[in-house]
From TrEMBL:
Taxon lineage: Eukaryota, Metazoa, Ecdysozoa, Arthropoda, Hexapoda
Protein name according to UniProt: Golgi-associated PDZ and coiled-coil motif-containing protein
InterPro entries documented for this protein: GOPC
Originating species: Danaus plexippus plexippus
A biological process from GO: negative regulation of protein localization to cell surface
GO molecular function: transmembrane transporter binding
Domain of life: Eukaryota
GO cellular component term, pick one: trans-Golgi network transport vesicle
Amino acid sequence: MATTGVGFRWLDLLEKEFDKACVELETCLTELESEDQETMFCGRQKIATLSSCFAQLTHKALTIFQNSAKLEVCLK
């Protein structure tokens, strides 16, 4: 179960870092918004796309970790 536990902790840390980076990027975009609104809109769309892709990847990884945990329990 140790390997699976590491996977869950890794995933949790990765999600927190991603969320922190998105918030910081959004803050930077907000500060620049008055200069070029079209660029800011495009930037926000890209952030939304990245977030969606990351969420899907995270969900898939979580499913794999859960299946691995179940298999480890069955093998013991």
